[in-house]
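Sample entry (806 residues):
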Amino acid sequence: MTSRILIMMILLVTAITAQDTRRSADFRGAVQGRVLDNATGNEIGYANVVVHNLPDSSLVDGAMSDENGFFYIPNIPAGRYYVSAKFIGFYEVLSSEFRLTPQNATVTLEDIRLKRAAIQMSEVEVVGDRPVIEFKADKRVINADQFAASLSGTAVEILENVPSIDVDVEGTVTLRGSSNFIVMIDGHPSIFEGSDALDQIPATLIQTIEIITNPSARYDPDGTTGIINIVTKKQKITGVSGQLSVNAGNGDKYGANAALSMRYDKFTWNNSLSWNDFQSGGQRTTDKTTTINDTAFSVLGDGRGEMHRKTYSYRTSLDWRPTDKFLISAQFNIGHYERSRTSNQMFEEYPVYSIYRSLDDNTRAGDYWGTGLEFTKKFDKESHDLSGSVSYRSRIGSEFNETTRRDENESITDRTKNTEDSNDSDWRLKLDYKNMASETRGFEAGIQSRISMDEEGTGTYGWDTTASQYVYYPQYSHQNDYEHVIHSLYAIYKRELGPFQWQWGARGEYTYRNMHLNTQDTTYLIDRWDVFPSLHVSLPLSENNQVMASYTRRIDRPRNWYLEPYATQRDAYSVFQGNPGLEPEYINAWEASWQLSKKKNYIAADIYHRTTENKVERVQSVIDKETLLFTFANVGKDYSTGAELSLNVIPYSFWNIFLSGNLYRYRVEGSFNGRSFDNSSNNWGVKFNNTFFVGTDTRIQFDTNYHGPSVTSQSEREGFWIASAAVKYDIGKKWTAALQVRDVFGTGRHEFTTTGPNFINATAFERESPIAILSLTYRFNNYKNGKNRPENGEGMNGDEDDLFLF
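Predicted structure, serialized as tokens:
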């Protein structure tokens, strides 16, 4: 009896062991981690990472780290292993032992830190930092963390140092001379426009900024000069991680932001929260002369201007990957914005002398929110997928503008107030299909609908000096409704003929816009089709040497406030009125580029030519001896032809030099108010960035930017230059402190001179300087910059794994 029981127990144990063995045989685990430069703490991309068996050190599998030093090696059987990592110019490093079991399926290793090998100066030297700018086939990728002098600011401060971009002393961003570009956040259009959108995003939450000057037919054709896409930080290592940043500067400048990421087997949850309260000011002067009936009237102004910007926002996204080939993603964001500009100027009038004080206050504020749902389905064949999305966004805002004129005794002689309330909502639906039919040819197609409904109301008030109160003017107050519908479809065909690669595409758009002015019972209607072709070609000359060329046709549609035909008092001497007859601009853009790289050293050159039909400009004309009218008009056609050169050199392992320049010829021709004009200028700018690595934890940076003179149809802008400096110090692995000083020498002066029939108007603004800001960042659980690249179907922009990288 005892022997039978013993035999049964042995058989039972054997069966259980066999079952566990079969389960272990079917099991597959994964290992992940990061490869860093031990000296600088920065990520090392393209390092060779190999998994070895214990105890015989046989090779199991391997991979290369991505651009951010991250590696992920799946499909490893249960067992005991270690990892080796190496990269040219560094010594090989072995990880500690780890074990994979069904209970411990994914192992995250501690950071693997490579030490630099002793290499002679005549040999190749390797710096662990990523380059300042990476040149892709269809875009430029700016690595935000390489600009230490901008970490306490927003996307605007980062772009100050980027080729093709100019930022004036008041924070207005232009791309190749135009402020009409599209801003996207993680591939989604921003609810704000231009500089306002870029000002909302703290620099410490930005991973990269992508500049696409000639987008293909896949993208919306809006914007004169292309797209600026902000890619925010997202963690790729399994687990919970995050960061917290705070900053403070002179002149009441404060900010804080936080990010939290949770990544598990099938789910990723990313969150970010930001708050900014930024004040600045400066001295403003005005010198204006108008001529009426051969009599000249002059106004001289001198005073101070102040700007106050307050924002806070929350963004969250949840990704679910039920399989390796299917992704569902949901996003939500909410926020508040407020920007005010005030001025206090003394004015003197001639030839009949009088003196006034003008107090002006303009405030824009509002709340916004948006949500979206996306999916991506990848088929069995590589680069064959279907994706779709639906999104909704809403913004409720208000604007307040008050102008007060006081005499020498500070008595109010004139006062006006204008208000505006708006309620905007937008829907966007998209469906995209991509099929690379073979290794040498492919096809893409998609459809999209954009539906916008906007309601706006304006109020005008005048000051009753007797009763000392405002009086409402209903005859100058208005209600407007806007309906804007755009249906789009596009197709792209790609082909590779040997080393030569080309892509042709076309996008058709149907536009319906109904602007109804309720108080006038007037409707302005647009109902039309447009076609926007695109062509991209590429020819690799060698592994690190290639030339590319492209052509696109684009459109820039007038904003709502450009069209409203109502007069609004801006200050004591200027009035703004929209133009409902504005036509959209049509842009034809040609571009060719050449790139040569060797390790982290590279040189890139671009030549471009752009023409704009129905050119829209803000123009001025005389109302009376004191007052100018500002409006928008289609003035004719303009041309921009230029070249850009970028150079990144690492003369020593502790020194990185980035130099870029932009030179272009601008010409505008046409007419306004019956007067023909031709204006042209040679525009140029230089950006010089020096970064020094001191020891293993300290980085010192010096930036110098020069912006050359420029012109429009009526105006000339003087050149100016700005110098900035910063020190960044890593305190252990979790803390980073940075001190930046902007406009070190106080040279940020903005001067404009505008001339037209019977007037000349010169203005200048010199902001307070220098501006010093100190920031402190804390990271936990290895939260680092992670580029938003596709992984298991994760990429939602639809262009990261294209065969030809267009």
